[in-house]
Write a structure and sequence with these properties.
Elements lengths: L1 E2 L11 E2 H15 L4 E7 L5 H14 L3 E6 L11 H11 L4 H8 L27 H6 L5 H22 L4 E6 L6 H12 L6 E8 L8 H9 L5 E6 L4 H11 L6 H11 L3 H10 L8 H8 L7 H13 L5 H8 L3 H13 L3 E3 L5 E3 L2 H9 L3 H16 L7 H11 L3 H17 L3 H14 L14 H14 L3 H13 L7 H16 L5 H15 L6 H16 L3 H18 L2 H17 L3 H17 L3 H17 L3 H18 L5 H17 L16 H17 L3 H10 L9 H16 L3 H18 L6 H22 L2 H24 L9 H14 L8 H10 L5 H17 L5 H14 L2 H14 L21 H11 L4 H8 L3 H15 L4 H10 L12
Parallel strand pairs: 3-6, 3-7, 4-5, 5-6
Antiparallel strand pairs: 1-2, 8-9
Length: 1007
């Protein structure tokens, strides 16, 4: 679990609960008189210092004394005992009489403390400080030094032991990998004599710097054998925690692909993530400060080792020993020694196949970026020559293209890129194929015409680029490439090629919102080019595409004619994939005509034919409409089976983020929301490299889950961040707009919920009046308006109540209009539409008074086709209406509560429990005397966390320690809480919160 609160300075404190718990436990033992030590290891930047800072704050808050010392990297001149001298320095000038006395009694401390800090005797001249030569060469003290050193060691232990009798002492020693021999000796002495003192010693060091020959390694192996010493390894964040860390660092919501890139490049290292986020650079640029930190590790290595590192950095992948020997030019012995040094110093790692790679990818970036241009080009050329001389295998052409491009050998690079494009497509990697064809386009004009591969020209490359962009989740770029292709058409271009180009543009445009007119014009251009020609594969595809457009344009007869003609042409020339595309349209037309059995027969036939023809895009289109056929008739289980198999097929073929790969994934997520099969966070993540609009489509649906689960702060960020994508796809505002209304409603801001509902309805009326989904929006909006009016009536604010009722009536009229003029796919309003219409009428019954329980019961029954969460919402409102009419609300309360608990729908669960408390209904597993939080809850999650701890009697400082936030931040949260609750004191705020049901009585565990 990751906690990333913000301090007053704005810098995040990285605290990991598991490691922090172990450090606090060690301090707790020291408080009890069980002295101990902790050795904290981790890579540079992983968060050791911040963790120790948090421990120090905890110790000081508990009344302990914290002494901190740091080793530094000093190459010239020795600084013996530096961390201990720094840590103990405050003792010599302490105003505490007992501390000063303890120091004066130990004159040997004069070797560590500056002169004049209360010592009675000067530092003994016969025992001078150690020199740099001593620090570098000493294994054990010379005999004449033994006595003086022992006196010093004993003085350090004695003064710490004596001070610890009055208060626990924690000494923090950072960066022990730079510790000199004297410091290591004193540390060993101190840790070996830890017994019953109230003392804790914590030392940190960089694991990657303690190589096999490092002098600290032997000491560590001895120290960890001591019973009083434990080791805590601080590892980089996992992917999920790293993502949370980056999102917490950002001042505003960031695109998912940017977050994913930072997470991937940082490999979970917090410092690296912060540096990358601070600059938000592109993948080829490394922040200068970070590059310097990384490169400093190589400066101490031998020239041969640095050369090997540079050679591997150019490879951009793990490298075998043979390749290194050939490209580096080093002899076998020199290469072995260089590799051994690099591995021992944790610069390189050896993989299971014997290849070498950098321990951290950012180090590879830094080394590569530090190469001189000529050095870089020559090394790439050497790799390219080696690849050309080897037998071809998987990835051969991609590697050859990469190194040839980087060494400016464009004649070799161009055909290699095109072969790599074909290989990537076969492997189901359209994103990689797109990168290859884009690179080919970028160098096309630079390669002499005579050197260009046969069968390719710029028009074909643009066509391929458009296709791969569309299938890898970048619809905007697919359109851009397709438009460029139409502009590249020449008067002498064959009609067949020109028609294919215009059809590609039409298909690409269809994936974007608001481009139907342009797309229709494009397919008409394609049809004009082939309509008078003989049957061909191109003509069959154009007819099939045209049939789909005519169906969208609500011209079913013309669509049917075009689809049948496409089937005939395809069968005449053996174009099975084009025939499958036409069969899909025949199936959708049958569905619209009210014949689902015929529709499913056509769609299954299209599925089989497309799979046999190797046309996965058409296969997924057939699967999507087959699922939709069951979905329209509320056969959710069957629909979910089909979309799930479609998603699996899309992943198998590498088309997860193609047009219908996205539609299948989006529908799968929606069905799981409706059916109560709520997934984890992984379902919300789009693939890397997909456009922000594609990612927004998934996140918009996910926002409904986040609100329903009560994660309001996260939901607020999603709702705000996705607003800019409303125009990209109609489904985005429908989902995230709904989530925004519900978010405001559950937070108790009913006025804001009404405003958002009216805003969304107004937007829909401008873009597409009479949309069937408007029924749902209206139903949610009227529910909010009714609650707003009821709240206002309780306050005696009749004007606000009247305005809320008027808003609800406007939304009611809109929903009823949508039910009349909307166009269902199957021709008649299906179960889902009828259920939302029933909920709309039930909500309307609440506008001017208590709701109609029978209408809410009818709405709940209407959602009985499988929409379990919406049904539970209706049962809750039904129970409210029954309770208001002195009816028996028990059954409705229990039905709603069971679903809310199973789904983890916290806001609904708490609302139902509050209702159960008022109705005196006992729920299984719920203490009847403990009222749940009221629905009208103005507090944020963090404000509630603070108030709960204040209610337990915690001080601001103690609250800050428990939540890992500063005392100042706690004060700010409390000020906001008191303002929201109308309280003037902390105690009054707690009392009001209990009275309003915002806090529950503390359990013995929390008390």
């Amino acid at each position: 679990m990751l906690i990333v609160p913000r301090l007053g300075s704005g810098i995040p404190l990285v605290a990991r609960t598991h490691e922090m718990r172990r450090l606090r436990a060690a301090f707790a033992r020291a408080e009890r008189g069980e002295a101990g030590a902790v050795l904290l290891s981790g890579d540079a930047g992983v968060g050791k210092t911040r963790l120790l800072t948090a421990l120090g704050e905890h110790v000081e808050a508990s009344g302990g004394l914290v002494l901190t010392g740091r080793c530094i990297d000093v190459r010239e001149g020795g600084l013996p005992y530096l961390p201990f001298a720094e840590a103990l320095a405050p003792l010599g000038s302490s105003a505490d009489p007992s501390v000063a006395a303890a120091v004066r009694l130990r004159p040997a401390l004069g070797r560590l403390l500056p002169q004049g800090q209360g010592l009675e005797e000067p530092r003994p001249a016969e025992h001078p400080p150690m020199t740099s030569n001593d620090r570098e060469t000493m294994v054990r003290p010379r005999p004449e030094q033994d006595l003086g050193q022992l006196q010093l060691f004993d003085a350090v232990l004695g003064v710490l032991t004596e001070i610890a009798q009055a208060r626990p002492v924690v000494i923090l020693l950072e960066d022990l990998h730079w510790a000199d021999a004297s410091t290591r000796n004193l540390l060993s002495f101190l840790l070996s004599r830890l017994r019953a003192q109230r003392l804790l010693v914590v030392g940190s060091y960089r694991e990657e710097d303690v190589h096999r020959r490092h002098p600290l390694r032997g000491l560590l192996s001895e120290l960890v054998r001591l019973a009083t010493v434990e080791r805590v390894d601080l590892h980089p964040f996992g992917t999920a925690d790293a993502r949370k860390f980056v999102e917490a660092l950002a001042d505003e919501p960031m695109p998912a692909d940017v977050v994913a890139d930072i997470v991937a490049r940082s490999e979970g290292n917090p410092f690296f993530a912060e540096e990358l986020l601070a600059t938000q650079t592109e993948c080829n640029d490394l922040p200068a400060g970070l590059a310097e930190v990384l490169l400093s590790r190589l400066e101490r290595l031998s020239p041969d080792t640095r050369r090997v590192a540079r050679v591997i950095s150019v490879a951009n992948e793990p490298v075998m020993h043979g390749a290194l020997a050939e490209v580096s030019g080093l002899g076998e012995l020199e290469l072995d020694e260089a590799l051994r040094e690099a591995v021992q110093h944790h610069v390189l790692v050896v993989l299971s196949d014997g290849s070498y790679t950098f321990r951290h990818a950012l180090l590879q970036e830094a080394v590569y970026g530090d190469l001189l241009p000529g050095e870089r080009s020559r090394t790439h050329a050497a790799y390219a020559a080696r690849i050309r001389a080897r037998p071809q295998g998987r990835g051969h052409d991609a590697k050859l293209a990469y190194h040839s491009m980087q060494s400016s050998d464009l004649v070799t690079a161009l055909p290699a890129l095109l072969r790599a494009m074909d290989e990537a497509e076969k492997l189901g990697a359209p994103g990689s194929a797109l990168q290859h064809v884009e690179q080919a386009l970028s160098i096309w004009d630079a390669v002499p015409e005579a050197e260009r591969p046969e069968g390719f020209d710029e028009l074909r490359l643009l066509h391929e680029a458009s296709y791969f962009a569309g299938t890898s989740g970048e619809p905007e770029r697919a359109v851009a490439f397709a438009r460029s292709a139409t502009q590249a058409l020449k008067p002498d271009t064959a009609a067949d090629r020109a028609a294919k180009t215009w059809r590609r543009l039409a298909e690409a445009l269809l994936a974007l919102e608001g481009t139907l007119d342009e797309a229709t014009a494009a397919i008409d251009r394609a049809w004009d080019l082939v309509k008078d020609t003989e049957p061909s594969g191109t003509r069959a595809w154009v007819l099939a595409g045209r049939a789909g457009f005519l169906r969208i344009l609500e011209q079913p007869e013309a669509a049917l004619e075009s689809a049948r003609a496409a089937v005939a042409d395809a069968q005449a020339v053996g174009a099975a994939a084009a025939e499958a595309a036409a069969l899909v349209t025949l199936g959708t037309l049958a569905d619209s005509a009210g014949d689902p059995a015929e529709a499913r027969e056509w769609l299954r036939k299209a599925q089989r034919k497309a799979r046999d023809a190797g046309a996965p895009n058409t296969e997924m289109r057939a699967t999507y409409f087959l699922a939709l056929s069951y979905d329209d008739h509320a056969d959710f289980a069957e629909a979910l089976d089909h979309v799930t198999s479609g998603v699996a097929r899309a992943e198998e073929t590498g088309l997860s983020w193609s047009v219908y790969g996205l539609e299948l994934r989006a529908r799968q997520l929606t069905l799981r929301y409706l059916m109560g099969d709520w997934p984890d966070e992984s379902a919300s993540r789009a693939g890397r490299g997909v456009s922000s609009a594609v990612a927004a489509r998934i996140l918009a649906i996910w926002s409904l889950f986040v609100v329903a689960r009560g994660r309001f702060d996260e939901a607020a960020k999603l709702v705000a961040g996705l607003r800019r994508h409303w125009t990209a796809d109609m489904q985005i505002p429908l989902s995230v707009g709904d989530a925004g209304i519900q978010l405001a409603y559950w937070r108790g801001d009913r006025a804001e919920a009404v405003r958002r509902a009216e805003d969304l309805i107004g937007w829909l009326e401008r873009i597409e009046p009479g949309l069937l989904a408007g029924i749902r929006v209206a139903a949610v909006g009227v529910t909010a308006a009714a609650a707003h009016a009821a709240d206002a009536r309780v306050r005696g604010d009749q004007a606000t109540a009247a305005a809320a009722v008027a808003a609800g009536e406007r939304m009611l009229a809109h929903g009823r209009m949508c039910a009349v003029v909307g166009q269902p796919r199957s021709g008649t309003l299906g179960p889902e539409g009828r259920a939302w219409l029933a909920r709309l009428e039930a909500a309307a019954s609440c506008l001017t008074g208590r709701g109609d329980a029978e209408k809410w019961a009818a709405a709940a029954a209407a959602f009985g086709y499988g929409a379990v969460y919406e049904q539970a919402i209706c049962h809750w409102h039904e129970a409210e209406a029954l309770l208001a009419a002195d009816g028996d609300a028990g059954a409705a309360i229990e039905a709603a509560h069971a679903v809310a608990v199973r789904l983890g729908a916290i806001p609904l669960r708490d609302a139902v429990r509050d209702l159960a408390h008022r109705a005196r209904v006992e729920l299984a597993g719920v203490e009847p005397a403990a009222p749940a939080r009221t629905v009208a809850d103005p507090l944020t999650d963090r404000e509630r966390d603070v108030l709960e701890r204040v209610a337990l009697g915690r001080t601001n400082r103690q609250v800050g320690e428990e939540l890992y936030i500063s005392e100042k931040t706690v004060s700010v949260h409390l000020s906001r809480v008191m303002a929201k609750l109308g309280a003037s004191r902390r105690a009054e705020a707690v009392a009001i919160a209990y009275d309003r049901g915002l806090l529950t009585a503390p359990t013995a565990e929390h008390a």
